[in-house]
Amino acid sequence: MALFGRSKTDARKTAKSEYDKACSLRGDDRKEQAYQMKLALRCRAHIDKVFIEGAEGAEVYNDAVLICISEGKAKPEPPKPSAYMKIKTASGEVMSYLPEEYAEVVFRYGMRYQTMECTAAQAIQAVQQIANSVSFELKIEHPLVALQFLRDQLTEEGIDVEAELAALSGSDETDAS
C-alpha cells in the first residue's frame, strides 16, 4: 500500500473488480442499475480518452517511424493503449477499466482516423460498436454514445453525422482490422 492513498496496482485491481461486478449484476433493482450506469459512464469516458490517445499517438509514432527510416533503423513497435486509465468524475479522480480487446480497437481507430486511413463516420461507427458491447455487458438500458465530441465537431462543420452513419450501415468498412 502506498504511503498516501492506494497504490496503482490496488487501484487497477479495484477498477477491474468493479467492472466485473457491474457485469455480473442482474440490474434488478435501482441500486444495481445505478452502479452499472456509473461504471458505464466511466467506460464511455475511457473510450473517448483512448480514442484521443490513439490519435495523438499516431502523430508521435509516425514521426518516430520517419526518423528510424531516415537513420536506416528498424521501425519501432506501435503504441498500445492501457486497459486502465484515470478518469475525472464529479467525486474526484478514479481508475477506470476497459477490457484490453476493446481498448485496442478504439486506440487503433483513433490512430487510423488521425492518419486519414478511415473517415470520421467509420471511426464513430466502429467505436460505437465497442460502446454497444460495453453497454450490453453492463446491462444498461440505453447504449452509451461514443465519441460525442467528434459527432459535435462534425455537426458544427455542417456534416449530418446520422446520415453519414446510415450510409455506412451494412458495409464492412469498419471491421476491426
Can you walk me through this structure?
With about 180 residues, the protein is mostly helical. The protein has one domain (about 10-170). It is built from six helices and two strands. The protein has helices at about 10-25, 30-70, 100-115, 120-135, 150-155, 160-170; strands at about 85-90, 90-95. A two-stranded antiparallel ribbon has the order 1-2. α2 (about 30-70) packs across α3 (about 100-115) and α2 (about 30-70) packs antiparallel against α4 (about 120-135). The protein is globular. The protein starts with 7 loop residues before the first helix and ends in a 9-residue tail after the last helix. Mean pLDDT is about 90; it is low at about 175.
Structural class by sheet pairing and helices = mainly alpha
Our count of domains comes out at: 1
Number of separate strands: 2
Strand order of the largest sheet: 1-2
Q: Report the portion of residues in β strands.
A: 5-15%
Continuous helix count: 6
Q: Low-confidence stretches at least 5 residues in length (pLDDT < 50)?
A: 173-177
